[in-house]
Amino acid sequence: MPPVARLLPWSGPEGQSCFLVSDRVGGGVVSRYADQVEEVQLAMTAGLLEHADAVVADAGAGAGSLRFLSAQLSAALRDAVRVAESRGDRLDRLDRLADCRCSGGEGEEGDVEEAGGGLGEAGGAGERGGEPEEGDGGGGGSRAW
């Protein structure tokens, strides 16, 4: 299978997107760490929504509390959108791969890569969850994991 890029659930130091380039599907250290980060982000977002309901229902909530809540909701929404984009990209690749295999075409994996598995705007790596394993990406230039 040719290497594909996965949008990671964190940003680089200047806010740029970070990608994991790998020929393995979900098997490497960085990929598993990204899965864990996504789960934490989504759980925190769910908890924040419950808190937001309580703050909005409180008639005595001040402007400062509402501004702080808005900032937190904005960050949580940004995380949730990034997770949705990353998961949607991976589902699209799986759908294209299944379509290629059902049609009996040869070189299915190459077709999937050409259909949108490329890098786009690769950015620098953000936080690390351990050193990448062989086949987990890495390498030159733009520090995509």
Q: Which H/E pattern describes the elements?
A: EEHHH
Biggest β-sheet strands, sense, barrel: 2 strands, antiparallel
Strand order of the largest sheet: 1-2
Mean pLDDT: 75
Beta-strand level of the residues, as a percent range?
A: 5-15%
Structure report:
The structure is a single chain. With 145 residues, the protein is mostly helical. It has one domain. 52% of the residues lie in helices and 10% in strands. The protein has 3 helices and 2 strands; from the N terminus they run E-E-H-H-H. The chain has helices at 29-57, 63-102, 108-114, and strands spanning 4-11, 17-22. It has a two-stranded antiparallel sheet with strand order 1-2. The radius of gyration is 19 Å and the shape is elongated. The two termini are 17 Å apart. Residues 106-145 have low confidence and may be disordered.
Secondary structure blueprint with pairings:
Elements lengths: L3 E8 L5 E6 L6 H29 L5 H40 L5 H7 L31
Features:
two-stranded antiparallel sheet, mainly alpha, 10% strand, 3 helices, single chain, 145 residues
Summarize the structure.
With 145 residues, the chain is mainly α. It is 52% helix and 10% strand.
